[in-house]
Amino acid sequence: MIEISNVSKTFQQRGSAPYTAIQNVSLTINKGEFVSLLGPSGCGKSTLLNLVAGLEKAEQGTITVNGKPCGGPGPDRVVVFQEHALFPWLTVLENVAFGLKQKGIGKAEREAIAKEHIKAVHLSKFTDRYPHELSGGMKQRAAIARALAMDSDILLMDEPFAALDEQTRLILHKDLEEIWLKTRKTILFITHNIREAVILSDRVLVMSTRPGSIKKEFAVQASRPRNQADPVLHHVEAHIMEALADELEKVVREETGDEYSLKKNDLSNPASSGMGGGI
Ligand SMILES: Nc1ncnc2c1ncn2[C@@H]1O[C@H](COP(=O)(O)OP(=O)(O)OP(=O)(O)O)[C@@H](O)[C@H]1O
Ligand SMILES: [Mg+2]
Q1: Of ligand 1's atoms, which has the minimum distance to the CA of residue 49?
Q2: Which pLDDT tens digit goes with each residue over 3-52?
Q3: Cβ < 6 Å from ligand 1: which residues?
Q4: Nearest residue to 154 (alpha-carbon basis) of 45, 70, 76
Q5: pTM given for the model
Q6: Spatial separation of the C-alpha atoms in residues 268 and 65, rounded to whole Å
Q7: Which residues 6+ apart lie within 8 Å of 263 measured at CB?
């Protein structure tokens, strides 16, 4: 379980006043829960994820992971970023096994563990390929296999599918859901894609900006495995669109004054946005 209590983060900026990226954020993510964060660019999503990862330090509030204060990165949390960050000089197998080597696990055992996770992301035919020989979707699958191989309870995913085309995304949604249903890891997932958040998550949190805070939360009470056509998903999606439209309108107004106004209908009709609205 992740408990974020009254957390604020202020960045010191060269030549200008300190900037409060997130303020008084409180949030509990239960063990085995899949939670997504949505919100306008710059609202503090990555900052919050990095705080949970232990990559940043909050100057106010506390974050605990399974009851223990999170003072820095730990083996109980693993991060998957938008850029796969695979080592280009290592094969898929070697990349996935890399962290296990660091843990001191012997060669035969780490290869067996790595192969099992490579199979879970459907890359078994590509174990000996180097990253440059893979498609974007395959690279991201390899990155997920590498994260899963670490066997941490918590996966922190910062826009892991943002650079992929829609078809590949849909396939990876299925893969990730399948893995999550099998492993029941706790997942904190950041995306700009509303449909992606809804289809994957138990709960979607919409953040507001300047300073970032949790504005609203939406439970997605649809059955699993999720079905694209489930009306429950469309219903939640429409409500999230509305909450986000308010937030985006606020951002646009602050940035442009009264020059330009964003009409709610521009954003709040998911049916008009193909496979899912992005923000
Ligand atoms: N190291 C830093 N120093 C100064 N300001 C920072 C730093 N990191 C983030 N910020 C600022 O904090 C705010 C929140 O940034 P963050 O990266 O968390 O946003 P985000 O919601 O993840 O945005 P995006 O959707 O574009 O990824 C931004 O205004 C950003 O400029
Ligand atoms: Mg970010």
Answers
A1: 18
A2: 999 999 999 888 888 889 999 999 999 999 999 999 998 899 999 999 99
A3: 11, 13, 19, 21, 39, 41-47
A4: 76
A5: 0.89
A6: 36
A7: none
